[in-house]
Amino acid sequence: MTIAFPMQSARPGAAQLRAAQVRYQADAVMSAPPERLVTMLYDRLVLDLERGEAAQLAGDWQEANSQLQHAQAIVAELTASLTDAWEGSAGLRALYAFVTTTLVGANVGRDPQRTRQCLDLVAPLRDAWHEAAQQLAAPGAAAAFPTDASA
User: Fold this and answer.
1) Phi, psi of 149 (to 5 degrees)
2) pLDDT tens across 92-116, in order?
3) Cut 0.85: pTM above it
4) Most buried of 11, 12, 18, 56 (most Cβ within 10 A)?
5) Residues sharing a CB contact under 8 Å with residue 119, sequence separation 6 or more, in sequence order
């Protein structure tokens, strides 16, 4: 009696594709310069807020909760990245605290208007960080930042 085994397809399955995608994303994060990491966090924060608001408007409270909690985790990461050596950190920290409190209220109160309020605050910040990162990456920008301690 012979047992026939189906041949494995040369095309990767969904699990393999997902694993490759996760590896690619991890590699992109691990190799990104600091200014790119900030813009990546802001991009995802805006996406989470947009998805959270859409879920709230659709009455999908489980999805809204998931998106808004992820947004809160990003704001916590952004807060943790602040250093007191930068003069703008206190103001940004206060803004992040406000966004966090408002997101909790939006989630608990199932209030898409509060989510929109956060999105309206965060989107211009994201744009400003992208602009700053582009300026930093511009030719000649590296010369403004010494690379060794003797400079």
Assistant:
1) -70, -20
2) 999 999 999 999 999 999 999 999 9
3) no
4) 56
5) 46, 49, 50, 53
